[in-house]
Protein: PadR family transcriptional regulator
Amino acid sequence: MMSTVDLIILGLVHEQPLSAYDIQKAVNYRNLDRWVKVSTPSIYKKVQSLAQRGFLSCESQPGGSQPAKTVYSITPLGREYFAELMEGIARQSVSILFDFNAVVANLNKLPPAQSRRLIGEIKENIAGTRDFMEEMAAQREHIPLVGRAVLGQQVAVAHTLLDWIRGFERDFDEEDR
Structure:
C-alpha cells in the first residue's frame, strides 16, 4: 500500500536533514495536513518506522542548552522508496472524498428545515476553506511552483464546491416547495 505520509516525510528530508519536530513544523507551515490525512502522532511514528526500515538515517546533534535532538536524513534506499512512492501514487486512481457527502446523502431523512440548516453549515465551511486557501495562496506567492500549484488546486476545488453547494441549495429549496 502506498503511503502519502511516507511520501511527505521523505520529500521533506529529501530537501534537507530534519528532526521529527522540524518535519512536523514544515507540515504545519505548508498546511500539508489540509491536503492529505496526516497528524502529528502519525508523523512521529512514521519517522521512526522509516528509520527502522532503512529509509532514513538518524544522527544525534547536541542542542546546546537544549537536549540533543535526532536529525533524520534520507538514505539511498530511502531515495529509491521515495521514487517508488512518487510513481505508485501518481498512477493511483484519484479519490474525491468529502466527509460532508455522508450528510448530503442522508438529508432526505431529516425535516426540511434541519436539512436546509445543515446545507447552510456545509456552505459556510466550504466558504471558510476557500477564504483560508486564498489567504494562504496570497501569503505564499514566494514558494516554489509546485507548492503554488497545489494551493491553486485547492482554491479551485473550493470555488467549485461552493458553486455546487449553492446550486444544490437552490434545487433543494425548489424541490421542497
About this structure: The beta strands are 18-19, 56-63, 66-74. The chain has two domains: 4-91, 100-176.
